[in-house]
Amino acid sequence: MIGELIIMGRLGNDTKSNENTLFGVASQSSMHISPSIALTADVVRFRAIVGHEIIHTIHFYRFGASASRTASERVAYQFSFQTFKNVGRINEAMRIKRTAMNLREPSWSFLNFWGRYPSRYSISNYLFLR
Questions:
Q1: How many CB atoms lie within 10 A of CB 90?
Q2: What local confidence, expressed as pLDDT, does residue 44 receive?
Q3: pLDDT grade for 126, boundaries at 50, 70 and 90
Q4: What is the rounded distance in angstroms from the CA atom of residue 66 to the CA atom of residue 23?
């Protein structure tokens, strides 16, 4: 399941920002993708996973320490959902949505990883994966 591959980097996928910031903007961001995904995923799945992680990298770079994990996850999960939906893989798209609706940070929060997010988190100006 893609959510297991992305959330918390359980199988090696992770995005994090360097703690060094300049005027509130991270000076460095890094992205890690599990070798098993890089070598075995089909193109659509690879694009959904890499796009998801690139979105976090963009947000952590742009917003630094003030980045909202919930907002970033909402954008990233909706990107992954659309990636599968756009090629007719509706079951996988719905699995992504269900995963996002069931995850919360912190776990006691009422906010899940599916829904609205501030417009400044929109990736339309940064990311063009087709």
A1: 10
A2: 94
A3: low
A4: 11
